[in-house]
Amino acid sequence: MSERRFFIDRSVGETRGVVLLDGRPERLFVQRDGEDRSVGAGAQAVVRVRKIDKALGTAFLELPGGAPAILPLRAEDGPLTVGQAISIEIKTEARRDKAAVARFLEAGEGAPRLLKPAPDVAELLALLAKDAPIVEGGAARDAADQAEAEAMEVVHGLPGGGRVSIEPTRALVAIDIDVGDRPGAESKRVTREANLSGLAAAARLLRLKGLGGLVAIDLAGRGHDGAALLNAARIAFGPDNPGVAFGPISRFGVLELTAPRRQRPVLDTLLDENGAPSAQTLALRLARAIEREGRKAGGARLKAACAPAVAAAFAPLRTGLAAKLGERFTVEARADWAPARQEVWAE
After folding, report:
1. C-beta separation of 303 from 344 below 8 A
2. Which helix (H) or strand (E) holds 295?
């Protein structure tokens, strides 16, 4: 039977929530200080209808903070008019270059305003954990660091050998299952085991990365046992229901499915537009490294060095970190350092 454990890491500048499934990261929620909770899934607001496109069956909205959202038109919601006030709930958070998707609640009154913010990390974890304990402290920091590192990887090793690669595109999420160096004399059995392991890992990793929509899984080998693999996929993606749908395995060995999108992909928060860790992500990592060294080194003075962009992103974190450690650390920008390089030491 699968075991899930729940962690919350409250650090300077952000809060991270983690779910571990049998010891491996399954979900990662990242909420940074100052983040707009009016655009998160579950937020409710009174908004104005900015434009209606009947051909697309879509109303275009402006959220209270100015962000755009779209509302699929449904007959049961009644006719809408441009400028009308309505109450909505964010069903799917905005992604990079994609607006949030809203759900109609009722006709609204008054000026655009937030009625209910999106749940924070603690509330999201509580919904999943139910009565299970939520761990804080050092174990939570380790779990969050592990989850963040794995979420940013593209190629993931499989238990027993082989690998699964996950690459999101604008149209779909492409997943490749590869037997690799998985041992075994009978190739058909080895391939079947790799596919079963790969499907379980793919479902977990999609939840970890916050990815959904159309998913195409290129299975290893050929001549697949379609019924067995589809059954394994239904079990693996069970936690994502309602909203998961499967197509048959094609003659090219590709399994297509759709999984619901709810929260913003965590990679949109962690990575920049080039797919590398953003300066803010690296600055938060530096703050945790300074805090870790400070607790280990007692009252010693601390020094850190990093790239200029990371030092600039770290500046707003200084006050919060000083409240924890005192004013006993300095951060030096090194013009010739790569963004990911950073060092912390005690004097």
Report:
1. yes
2. helix 279-296
What pLDDT is recorded for position 185?
A: 59
Alpha carbons 253 and 178: distance in angstroms, whole number: 12
Give domain status of residue 271, yes or no: no
1, pLDDT greater than 70: no
- pLDDT tens-digit profile of 123-140? 999 999 999 999 999 999
Task: Provide the CATH number for the domain around residue 13.
Answer: 3.30.420
For residue 89, give its domain range.
44-116
Decide if 240 is inside a domain. Answer: yes
Is residue 226 located within the same domain as residue 164?
Answer: yes
Q: What count of other Cβ atoms lies within 10 Å of the Cβ of residue 232?
A: 19
CATH number at residue 50: 2.40.50.140
- The CATH number of the domain holding residue 178 is 3.40.630
**Digit-coded pLDDT (tens) for 150-168:** 999 999 999 989 999 999 9
Whole-number Å distance between alpha carbons of 313 and 291: 17
Beta bridge partners, 303, equal 330, 345
Please answer whether residues 214 and 201 qualify as being in contact, where contact means their C-beta atoms are separated by less than 8 angstroms: no
pTM, two decimals, is 0.91
The Cα 235–Cα 276 span in angstroms is: 33
What whole-number distance in Å separates Cα of residue 235 and Cα of residue 200? 8
Q: Give the count of beta carbons closer than 10 Å to the beta carbon of residue 230.
A: 18
pLDDT for residue 199: 97
DSSP 8-state code for residue 110: S
> In 3-state terms, what secondary structure has residue 171?
coil
Q: Do the domain assignments include residue 171?
A: yes
Sequence-separated (6 or more) residues with CB below 8 Å from residue 217: 175, 176, 177, 198, 199, 202, 233, 254, 255, 256, 257
Indicate the number of domains in the chain.
Answer: 4
- In this structure, are 249 and 285 located in the same domain? no
